[in-house]
Amino acid sequence: MKVQFRITLKLLKEIRTDLNRPHAFALERVGFIYCRFAWLSKSELVILAHDYEPVDDAHYEDDREFGAVIGVGAFRRVLTRTYHEKLGIFHVHSHGGKGVPRPSGPDMSETAKFVPDFFHGRRDVPHGAMIFSDDALSGRVWLSEDDRKPKTFTSCRVTGWPLSWWQKS
Q1: Banded model confidence at residue 167, pLDDT cuts 50, 70, 90
Q2: Within 13 Å of residue 26, how many CA atoms lie on the same side as its CB?
Q3: What is the DSSP string of the chain?
Q4: Which residues contact 31 (CB under 8 A, 6 or more apart)?
Q5: CB under 8 Å to 111, separation ≥6 — which residues?
Q6: List of domains in the chain
Q7: 125 and 136 in contact (C-beta within 8 Å)?
Q8: Measured between alpha carbons, how far is residue 5 from residues 49, 52, 119 in Å?
Q9: Which among 136, 66, 68 has a CA at the least distance from the CA of 97?
Q10: What integer best gives the mean pLDDT of the chain?
Q11: What is the rounded CA–CA span in Å between residue 136 and residue 166?
Q12: Contact 61, 25 (CB under 8 A)
């Protein structure tokens, strides 16, 4: 299955700026990207980044096991919005560095636990998780709550000047 992700340069810069802000105790920032979708065929999905919502400082929990832990209030807020609008939710954080980032073991296991819960807000759209680096991104998308094998992004396009594009080989 092909999964294309598209985002404007303006939104990408906004997200990177937010994710690079320091936090009082969390080692990293997290946020949520709201997305719309277009099926080009039964085997080709286009994900369109629509909006970004940073996690408020009050929703971070002081937990040293992970770089950032957020409470249920942050999830409740995005679930409420997706319930009222036909938007998918993508959890996002940054690994910094250069090149296409790869999810860590905790990234894989933790997103597998909470992304399916996004379907409680909206069952009729995909949801997922993304990781940004300083010059690229990667992502996985769940097509349903029962999806045990999320699909990985096969290409990404950033619209704006300069135009940027990468494709999984």
Answers
A1: confident
A2: 22
A3: -EEEEEEEHHHHHHHHHHHTS--SS-SS-EEEEEEEEEEEETTEEEEEEEEEEEPPGGGEE--TTSS-EE-HHHHHHHHHHHHHSS-EEEEEEE--SSS-----HHHHHHHHHHGGGGGGT-SSS-EEEEEE-SS-EEEEEESSTT-SSPEEP-EEEEESSS-EEEE--
A4: 15, 18, 19, 52, 53, 54, 55, 91, 92, 93
A5: 91, 103, 128, 129, 140
A6: 11-37+53-147 (3.40.140)
A7: no
A8: 8, 15, 20
A9: 136
A10: 94
A11: 8
A12: no
pLDDT tens-digit readout, 26-82 = 999 999 999 999 999 999 999 999 999 999 999 999 988 888 999 999 999 999 999
Q: How confident is the model at residue 162 (pLDDT cuts 50, 70, 90)?
A: low
Please give the average per-residue pLDDT across 105-122, as a whole number.
95
pLDDT > 70 in the chain, percent = 96
Name the residue type at position 108: M
